[in-house]
Write a structure and sequence with these properties.
Strand content: under 5%
Order of helices and strands: HHHEE
Shape: globular
Strand order of the largest sheet: 1-2
Largest sheet: 2 strands, antiparallel
CATH topology of one domain: High-Potential Iron-Sulfur Protein, Chain A
Length: 132
Amino acid sequence: MENYWLSDIDYQKSVIKNIKEAKSTPDPEDDELEDNSEDTSPKSNLEERQQMMYENYESVVEMHGMFDQSSKASGSHYAPGELNPFKQEGLICGNCVFFQGGGGCEIVSGRIDPNGICKLWIIPQKLVKLKR
């Protein structure tokens, strides 16, 4: 019997290794084309840990399909805006890198309220409002 847990760990290690190699390997085309434009992708404002989480969630969805909105073990534990206790802190789907506007999400299926929240959020620090 194959141990799927270990194969998943090996897969995750390979994803992390590829991310590290991509960061450390200079792109030869960078010397040829100087791009002065600012990176405006959702990932551009993420911390390194968040970037790794983003890549891992994308890989999980690629392998297993989108998360549903349920509170089951593989669900996203999604809560619509009226049930989100963290709105004041900016922890809302509308600030998450996966939110697609118009009620969509890259990794959670179904209609998404911009003021909702789930356990999979990745929100850039500059959009999080800390209580003082």
